[in-house]
Amino acid sequence: MKSILLICTVLGASLGASPWTNSTPRKIHPWCGKHPARRRIVGGFLVTLDSVPWQVSFVFQGNLCGGSIIGARWILTAGHCFPSSENPQLTVRVGSENYEEGGFEVPVKRSIRHENYNTLLATDWDFCLLELARNLTFTDTIRPIELPKQWEPVENDIMCTISGWGRTNNEYDDLTQLRAALVPIMDWRECDQLYAYKGGLTSRMICAGFREGGVDACKGDSGGPLACENKLVGVASWGYRCAKAGYPGVYGRVAAVRDWIRGQSLI
What we know:
Strand content: 25-35%
Number of helices: 2
Number of strands: 16
Largest sheet: 6 strands, antiparallel, barrel
Strand order of the largest sheet: 10-11-12-16-15-14
Oligomer: single chain
Order of helices and strands: EEEEEEEEEEEHEEEEEH
């Protein structure tokens, strides 16, 4: 019986050769509109934080998750990464391409998981806000990402960036280093049909990936950003295996909970 794999760590892998090298960090430039290029990756390409300055990481009970800076004191991540707590005993690492060192760690004051999140389903309403104990100072490598409006649409096939420190298909990749990939937004109805065996999607979900597979988020990338034209469209949530043909990555749709984010954080 097929099972859903929660995405907890960086980018998944590809089956083909990549024009990117895995040894040299690359800057990501914003993709405007649609783009036909396929950036097939094996373990992702290394990326610098000035390309994704909103990216953060944290480890909770041995599980690595990513998150996105959305304000001076606020991080948005996945609900399955962390429960609500007034004393999380958690720190978030910012300003480093290495999730184990560099940059600096900021204590989390409290975590607010969406009240509709269901721990049994662990796929719908998959959002959590982390309030930091102190404000971040913004720099070229530490900066918030723009949020969409409530129910703001996103164009199908637009190329977006996923990033994180998750699992790859190359055992020789250094998973402590930040990687990224480019994936297109998939039509919601098509993705809903692909996951019909799981009950399909809800309006709080959005899909991104190639129909032939090969590029995806994977275990360890959970909570990380799906950024389209430097706007936070999705939060890495779940999928079937990683980079498997016919099963794109599923992300929590940020535009579906924009009002909730504002109500909790005043952002």
